[in-house]
Design brief:
Keywords: Glycosyltransferase, Transferase. It is an enzyme of class 2 (transferase). This is Glycosyltransferase. It holds the Pfam family UDPGT. With 471 residues, the chain is of the alpha/beta class. It folds into 2 domains: 3-244 and 453-469, Glycogen Phosphorylase B (Rossmann fold, 3-Layer(aba) Sandwich), CATH 3.40.50; 252-448, Rossmann fold (3-Layer(aba) Sandwich). The chain is built from 16 helices and 15 strands. The protein has helices at 14-30, 69-72, 82-101, 121-126, 139-155, 193-205, 220-227, 252-262, 282-295, 329-332, 345-349, 363-372, 385-396, 421-433, 435-451, 457-469, and strands at 3-9, 34-41, 60-65, 106-114, 131-135, 168-169, 178-179, 209-212, 236-238, 269-273, 298-302, 337-340, 354-359, 376-378, 399-401. The strands form 3 sheets. It has a 7-stranded parallel beta sheet with strand order 3-2-1-4-5-8-9, sandwiched between helices.
């Protein structure tokens, strides 16, 4: 019997590949009529913590498109992945034709495309199959994109005029007015970023449906807006939280971290980690160190060396932390704190000694923290993280604020803002001492786990998506 093949194309990078792989596994576990090919467009970022290409199985196949320096040069902060994706269309076309169209064992059913890979819908159209968008951010964020795109195209609003203003916007996917200062950086970019970002919403409208890595109980306002018939939006399927919960690799560094956590009291440790691209200037690092020392809380701090200015490389490891930390900091805090490089984030958040998470509020990290029931201190850096931070602090009450309108130009390694130690210390104290926030996060943890069980909202939504494929 032929299986119905779904072609998944994630954006490059582990933060997009991981939820794609986990969604594919969920779908395959639910319906044995399905098979999946994940096409991975590689980058030359040299992330040594990249786990490499996963191993293919009978129904889940991984095919890489290699990258050279000329292809890498197509990616830049202005156009982001647009030219890179366009360049790879020929490779995708050939992969699909040779591995699926000419196969006797599978039938091409649909493309499932990451938000930054919507150009590949043109290839799906050539093969006469529908495209779905896999939106790896939240429902409220998706609603914001649709709303701002509609206001631009139908009412002539120019959202870039709001940059650096104190105005607030009424966005139907949010309960509270949204300050312009927390809108995603690309939305406010007058040099073409805003047009590119909002044009994505038009591409989403052309799809057969949108799969969202969220769950109804977390974002009820956003999900209800997206499902409303008046919004002219394709069917949406909130299927989250989609997480990779497999155990961290048992290497010596991970073992050292987990051993240290084992020796700390329950819910006593503040974990600071800022994602695969997160790093700070030396001046900012010193302010964080002063705040941690003054707070007197136990801490585990993932500290990475910034990329060179003008580079899009990922942060590297420090060879010697003392070159960037205040003199004597490591010695003075050795009984209560530990500074590390890369961190096995899910394993750390799952540990009972961790009581708070100072986070950049990337969506994957947000869902992991909710799943583990660890409250957040919000310190967003780039992309849509400011909007996520506003949602966590103001809409949901499961995060304390450090600075929700903080911005850094991560793509260029430029840091124009510095948050003072007093502000950081205040955020950490609220994170660790606000019992109402901690209880709200515990309630959301239970809701996140119920959503994916049989009878839960996300479990049902995955079934609805499979039915929608009409296989």
């Amino acid at each position: 019997m032929k299986t119905s093949e779904l072609v998944f194309i994630p954006s490059p990078g582990v933060s997009h590949l991981t939820p794609t792989v986990e969604l594919a596994k969920l779908l395959l576990a639910r319906d044995d009529r399905l098979s999946v090919t994940i096409i991975i467009m590689k980058l030359l970022l040299g992330d040594k913590h990249d786990t490499g290409t996963p191993v293919s199985t009978d129904r889940l196949r991984y095919i890489e498109i290699p990258c050279d320096e000329s292809t890498m040069a197509l990616i830049n902060p202005e156009t982001f992945l647009t030219a890179f994706v366009e360049h790879n269309k020929t490779h995708v076309r050939n992969i699909v034709r040779e591995n699926i169209i000419e196969s006797d064992s599978v039938r091409l059913a649909a493309f499932v495309l990451d938000m930054f890979c919507m150009g590949m819908a043109d290839v799906a159209n050539e093969f006469g199959v529908p495209s779905y968008n896999y939106f790896t951010c939240g429902a409220c964020m998706l609603g914001l994109m649709f709303d701002l795109q509609a206001k631009r195209d139908e009412e002539g609003h120019d959202v870039t005029e709001l940059k650096d203003s104190g105005l607030e916007l009424s966005i139907p996917s949010f309960v509270n007015p949204v300050p312009a200062k927390v809108l995603p950086e690309p939305v406010l970019d007058k040099k073409g970023g805003s047009k590119m970002f909002l044009d994505l919403a038009n591409r989403f409208r052309e799809t057969k449906g949108v799969i969202i890595n969220t769950f109804q109980e977390l974002e009820s306002q956003g999900v209800e807006y997206l499902l409303s018939s008046s919004a002219n939006i394709p069917p949406v399927f909130p299927v989250g939280p989609i997480l990779n919960l497999s155990k961290a690799k048992n290497d010596s560094k991970t073992e050292e971290i987990m051993t240290w956590l084992n020796n700390q009291p329950e819910s006593s440790v503040v974990f600071l980690c800022f994602g695969s691209m997160g790093s700070f200037s030396e001046k900012q690092v010193k302010e964080i160190a002063i705040a941690l020392e003054r707070s007197r809380h136990r801490f585990l701090w993932s500290l990475r060396r910034p990329q060179p200015e003008g580079s899009m490389e990922q942060p590297k490891e420090y060879e010697n932390y003392e070159e960037v930390l205040p003199k004597g900091f490591i010695e003075r805090t050795s009984s209560v704190g530990k500074v590390i490089g890369w961190a096995p984030q899910t394993a750390v958040l799952s540990h009972p000694s961790v009581g708070g998470f100072v986070s950049h509020c990337g969506w994957n990290s947000t869902l992991e923290s909710i799943w583990c029931g660890v409250p957040i201190a919000a310190w967003p850096l780039y992309a849509e993280q400011q909007t996520n931070a506003f949602q966590l602090v103001v809409e949901l009450g499961i995060a304390a604020e450090i600075r929700i309108d903080y911005r850094s130009d991560m793509g260029r390694g430029i840091y124009n803002m510095t948050v003072a130690a007093e502000e950081i210390e205040d955020g950490i104290r609220r994170l660790m001492n606000d019992h109402e926030m901690r209880n709200k996060m515990k309630e959301m943890k239970e809701k996140s786990r119920s959503a994916v069980l049989e009878g839960g909202s996300s479990y049902a939504s995955i079934g609805n998506f499979i039915d929608h494929l009409n296989i």
